[in-house]
Design brief:
The chain has about 400 residues and is α/β, with parallel strands linked by helices. Helices cover about 30% and strands about 30% of the residues. It has eleven helices and 19 strands. The protein has a six-stranded mixed sheet, sandwiched between helices. Helix 4 (about 190-195) crosses helix 10, helix 6 (about 235-245) crosses helix 7 (about 250-260) and helix 6 (about 235-245) runs antiparallel to helix 8. The longest helix is centred in the C-terminal third of the chain and has 25 residues, at about 285-310. The chain is globular.
């Protein structure tokens, strides 16, 4: 095999599980895709594992498919976590600089991050990850790179990802039950952002909306940092359910109708022959109204959250991704509802390119893994990863 490092990602979603293996070659910017596979998933509801054994079997299945053609066994992967149980809380950690010469060391930074995790939590909640916002040295705010600077007191402002511990355990049990080691874990929203947003958008201020089957993820960046995120328990499955209920057809048929509207002009006329039952034909106009109503509801919820956070006027606008973003007119609906510039976000950083927004999360997982093998010499704080990993939670769940 060509010299380099293999990186595996698993996007464990409500409707499907996607596996992606890519090769990180020395000196190459893009990752080379070695294998990818997708299987239908069962045992999850709105991004949360409710039946670990079912999900384990599906992970085994997708890994087996992805393994074909590879020389090496897939025994570990970076995975995602999703669901409305996830929340993001502000944290602050203050420490005294430990060195006699008052130079801030990596150890001081780690201590400040660790101190920022001491936030008030409800029963069964765990801080899973911390995201850096800024450092404050001796009361002076707005500093991003502090290692080597001098000071007496160092304060870290962070955004803490909080997860419901039983759901986290169900997820880890599903992966470990498939004999896959968990290398790292990222929330779906953050992983997708890694794959589809560029640094300029993050600096200016941008919101990523990832529409999945069971959930919709909102992620907001400003000045290069993740500043807030939220998971809504609404997704493209709600559209499928609406079609099935209103047209009085089976859920499988409703799903096929929804998928056939990828690329359709929803305001077109005529009938949709695929939407037949007992000789019936349903007009595109009738189906488009169903899709539009639920899509508007999703964007309305997102808009309320943006306004609540005071982030409804982001200069770089909105980026849409996820399988639900493939529905025709979704970008136009978002632009109309949110009153911001909108574009479709496709994964970047791979060869060959993946022109499917449904693969954004798993691509982001693999891109995050690739950072492990990038040289840190000359890298800025942000370039070393938008996440400062403080792994302690996972050890609770690994036997």
């Amino acid at each position: 095999m060509t010299k380099g490092h293999l990186i595996s990602g698993l996007d464990i979603g409500t409707n499907s599980i996607k596996a992606l293996v890519a090769l990180k070659k020395p000196g190459e910017k893009d990752l080379e895709i070695m294998s990818q596979a997708e299987v239908e998933n069962f045992g999850m509801r709105k991004g949360v594992v409710i039946n670990s054994s079912q999900v384990s079997q599906k992970i085994i299945e997708v890994v087996s498919l992805c393994r074909q053609g590879l020389e090496k066994k897939i025994d570990s992967a970076i995975i995602n976590i999703n669901g409305s149980h996830l929340s993001f809380l502000s944290g602050r950690g203050l420490v005294s600089v430990s060195r006699a010469d008052q130079k801030i060391s990596e150890t001081d930074i780690e201590r400040a991050f660790q101190a920022s995790r001491s936030i008030s939590l409800s029963t069964n909640q765990e801080v899973l990850e911390t995201y850096p916002q800024e450092f404050i040295i001796d009361g002076q705010p707005g500093i991003k790179e502090v290692e080597g600077l001098r000071g007496i007191r160092l304060e870290a402002k962070t955004l803490c990802l909080v997860a419901f511990a039983p759901y986290l355990k169900n997820l880890s049990d599903s992966v470990l039950g498939a004999d896959i080691e968990i290398e790292d874990i990222l929330p779906s929203a953050v992983a997708s952002a890694q794959a589809v947003l560029d640094q300029k958008e993050k600096e200016l201020g941008v919101a990523l909306i990832d529409i999945g089957g069971g959930t919709t993820n909102l992620t907001i960046f400003e000045e290069g940092n993740l500043v807030d995120a939220k998971v809504f328990p609404l997704g493209s499955n709600n559209i499928t359910n609406d079609i099935a209920i209103i047209l009085k057809i089976e859920i499988e048929e409703a799903e096929n109708i929804k998928k056939s509207f990828t690329g359709f002009n929803l305001r077109g006329s005529g009938s949709l022959k695929e939407a037949k039952k007992s000789g019936q034909e349903f007009s595109k106009k009738a189906i488009s109204k169903i899709i539009e109503a639920r899509t508007k509801e999703i964007f309305s919820e997102v808009n309320k959250e943006l306004k609540r956070l005071g982030k409804s006027k982001l200069p770089a606008g909105i980026v849409l991704t996820g399988g639900g973003a493939k529905l025709a007119k979704t970008v136009e609906f978002a632009k109309k509802e949110l009153k911001l510039h909108c574009r479709l976000g496709l994964p970047k950083g791979f060869s060959p390119q993946i022109d499917d927004p449904a693969w954004s999360t798993v691509c982001g997982l693999v891109l995050e893994g690739a950072k492990t093998f990038e040289t840190e010499e000359g890298s800025s704080f942000a370039e070393k990863g938008i996440i400062k990993k403080l792994r302690g939670v996972f050890k609770i769940f690994i036997p």
